[in-house]
Fold this protein.
Amino acid sequence: MASAPTFSTQQDWRQIHLGRLLGHAMRRFDARVLHLMAHNEEVPLALSNLAARAQVSAAHIHITRHLSLQGSRLSDLADSAGMTKQAMGDLVTQCEAWGLITRESDPQDARAKRIVFTDTGLAWLSAFEQAVAQAEAEFKQEVGGDVATVVSLGLEAYAGAYADLESQARAHKNTT
């Protein structure tokens, strides 16, 4: 009979490990960005109201982060965001209803559609850029410039390694 696993007497590791802290930090950052966007005078009022009432979530930001300025196919957008095509399709439908994006014929393939920003969507993208810059400046102010730089470099290296692993996994999947 196998012996029962042993655990450290300190059980706080389940609440304060790096992954959990990163998750909390990401949710805090995204919430701040959405708050700033909700109060940005350049964002159309209807979108500001949606953001202020928490109708726009961090998931909707995936489109803002991943949609090319020249437009993207749904499958490319979903792949870039690390989401299923169906989940991204639902976000696209919502964002299209809000006037952020539209679907147009793809000039490369008449059977396909490209998702592109509308003028309202470009205003949203500009507000997103401003909100991210402000949230990053607030982070730097709160933790100090040196710590902010080390955190940024460390996360860039860590996330870059993950992106490399994802690319390798996709390449392997496509060859099998």
User: Anything to note?
Assistant: Residues 14 and 98 are 40 Å apart (CA to CA).
